[in-house]
Every structure is written in C-alpha cells, then in structure tokens.
Amino acid sequence: MKIGVLGSGKVGQTIAGKLAAIGQQVMIGTRDPQKLTEWQQKAGENAWIGSFKEAAAFGEIVFNATSGSGSIEALQLAGSEQLEKKILIDLSNPLDFSQGMPPILFVSNTDSLGEQIQRTFPDVKVVKGLNTLPAPLMVNPTQLADGDHNLFICGNDNDAKNEVKERLQQWFGWKSGAILDMGDIKAARGTEAILPFSMSLWGVLGTPVYNLKVVHQSLSK
Amino acid sequence: MKIGVLGSGKVGQTIAGKLAAIGQQVMIGTRDPQKLTEWQQKAGENAWIGSFKEAAAFGEIVFNATSGSGSIEALQLAGSEQLEKKILIDLSNPLDFSQGMPPILFVSNTDSLGEQIQRTFPDVKVVKGLNTLPAPLMVNPTQLADGDHNLFICGNDNDAKNEVKERLQQWFGWKSGAILDMGDIKAARGTEAILPFSMSLWGVLGTPVYNLKVVHQSLSK
C-alpha cells in the first residue's frame, strides 16, 4: 500500500520507518528534506521523501504527524485536492510548550484540533488516533505488557474507523480489543485533553515507556 | 477518627457511609438534611448530619464531595476557621453539564478547581484525589481487577499527601503502589481534565465499573 506521512519529527520518522520496514511504500512529506537523510538510508528502498503536497498525493492513506501548532497549515500545503476522500490518521495534539512542562492546550474543552481539521477539510475522513502514545509504542505496542493497554480512536466515518482499526493491527500489532472507538470526531476533545496529564506521568514514573489501560468489569458479570 | 464530609450527593453518601461502616466517626455537612434520613439509618451510630460549618468543625480530616460548581461556596460556608490547617481531600470536578454529555469544564488548561480552592483557602492542606473515579470504586477498589488500577493525588503539602495515601489504604483498601502522586496542586489541571474523556468511557464500555491503569515498563529493565 502507498502511504503518506506528513511531518518529519520523531513521530513521523517512527511511523514511516516502521511502514517501510514491513514492506509498505511510504513517502514522508516535509519542508526540510535534509533532516531525513539518515532516516532514508535506514528506511531503505520503500521510503521516499517529498513535499507535503507530494506525500499527500502519494498516499492512499495519509498520517498527520505534524506538530499541532502547524497542522492546519501543513494540511493546507498538502492540499484538500490531494487529501480528498482519503483517510487521514490524525496524530496531532494542540500542545503549547511556551509555558514549560506539562504543556497547555491551544484548543480544548469546547473544541479540539481534530474537529478543526475535520471542519477545515470536510471531504477528508479524519480518524483521530495514536496521539495519546509515545512514538515507539505507537508502532510496537507489544513491547509493553504484551500490548495489553489502550489506543483511542474517534471520527465521523465508521468505515474509515474500521479500516484504521484493521491497519493498526496489521501494521503495528495492536490487538483488536485494545483499540477503543470513542465516537465521532468530537471525542477528540477528550483524547487530546488527556495529554498534559499523560505527559506528566513520564516524570512521575521515571520511564518514557508507559500507556493507559482502561480496566473494566467484565460485561458478563 | 472524626471525619467531616461536605456534600450529600452520591459521592458524599458513599464516602461517609463507608467510613461509618468501618467504625470512624463521620459527619456529613449538607444544606438538605432531609435528604439523608435513609442514609443515616443505614450508616448507624457512627454517622451524624450537620451544616457545612458543623461538619468542617467536627472533622480532623475533611472531604470535599460537593459538586464542583458549588464547591467554593460550600467551603466558604464551612468556613476557613473550621478548615484551618486541616487536610481537605478534594474530590470535586469543575464539570458543566449544561451542554449535555460528556460535560465540559468550567475551569481548565491554565487553572483548575483544585488550585482555586487552594488559593481561596491558603491555610488548608488541599489534597486532590479520588475525583477521577466512580463513587463505588473510591471506597472499594478491590471490586475491580483486585484493585490493580490507579488513583491520582496531588497537593502542595507532602506530609498531607502521605497521610492521605495511608488513610486511603487503611480505610478503603487501596494498594500503596496504586496511588500515584502527580506533584503539587497544579497537577489538578491534568487530573480534572481527564474527566470528560473518562466519563465518555461509560458509554463506550457499557459498564459504570471501570478505571484507568497506568501500564509502564519495569524500572529495573
């Protein structure tokens, strides 16, 4: 499959590197191709580098791995024509680090970055997900507790969410039951708002390798 | 021990009922004593009912189990003199249900209700905690996954947090390792902000008996 990954930071490199490693065709869209020389050597023959627009056109599915503060602009550069009718897996978070750690949110409570992206690109199938996780866990969940922790997705298109669920299992090894569908894109308010909390846990736990698990009563009880 | 519980809703009744059942002396502070007739009969001889002021004066430790929108006012009625130098276990959440479910937050991101309470009552040792949980789990964590899920506390006074940790183990059966100290009262921004997300999980899971667990890599690895 051909996949576009917008954003050349740690998250974008991790996602795209994993996809290339498992034999998918992947193009990272970036403003800064020089940054990716080392990444591309490692990622090998399945990995390309292009502009945001080229990567969006290339991908049958596109990941938004740009930093939240630049996501709308990056997607505008990618172009609604290139993204139209495609699934956009939105990993972005509306984080503002200008006041130190933990970050604050530049949109929250009564709106979310996921909703803003969906409103700006109404013909794109935005599926918010993976945004609550440290990058290495996104693509290798079984490194922690044999994958027994959760990933939250949301979006307005059920078929798109189901496809994303399948792809995350197939590409990265997520277990089906570990992926919780929180509802429509409005649920991004909730999954984005846990970031300041969850990022604080790094300092509390003393390890960057952690995630949330929802523990619940068995429904048969 | 003598304990004051401010608030006669489900949370207040659950906390105070459990404390009376294990032989603590407890007084619920309420504006509406009639509401508690049935509760008091069940709670028995260790249970009293009073005003906010009487309950605050009665307690060596005080729980704030009032609804978030009325917490500051209820605490003002309780009176700073009655609360002075005491530990206040703050269970409140700044939830606004006026726009439906999930609720929005009437204070968030760059401030929190926990911080507002601490600022309003600087001589009270505010320890935020239990606010992320459904009431039955607060006082009976082992009913779910043998207690293997987390409770988050924060506050400015380390001795107060340590005492609260011990009390929650002793009174309600929380395991020591299950109680995560998130830092000073500013961390209430994080633990209050997860409520809209965590309340949405009820509908997703189809059960009200659930909680979050932080799964992390063993530090010895």
Automatic annotation (TrEMBL), chains A, B:
<dbReference type="GO" id="GO:0016491">
    <property type="term" value="F:oxidoreductase activity"/>
</dbReference>
<keyword id="KW-0560">Oxidoreductase</keyword>
<dbReference type="InterPro" id="IPR051267">
    <property type="entry name" value="STEAP_metalloreductase"/>
</dbReference>
<dbReference type="GO" id="GO:0003677">
    <property type="term" value="F:DNA binding"/>
</dbReference>
<dbReference type="InterPro" id="IPR028939">
    <property type="entry name" value="P5C_Rdtase_cat_N"/>
</dbReference>
<feature type="domain" description="Pyrroline-5-carboxylate reductase catalytic N-terminal">
    <location>
        <begin position="2"/>
        <end position="94"/>
    </location>
</feature>
<protein>
    <submittedName>
        <fullName>DNA-binding protein</fullName>
    </submittedName>
</protein>
<dbReference type="Pfam" id="PF03807">
    <property type="entry name" value="F420_oxidored"/>
</dbReference>
<dbReference type="InterPro" id="IPR036291">
    <property type="entry name" value="NAD(P)-bd_dom_sf"/>
</dbReference>
<keyword id="KW-0238">DNA-binding</keyword>
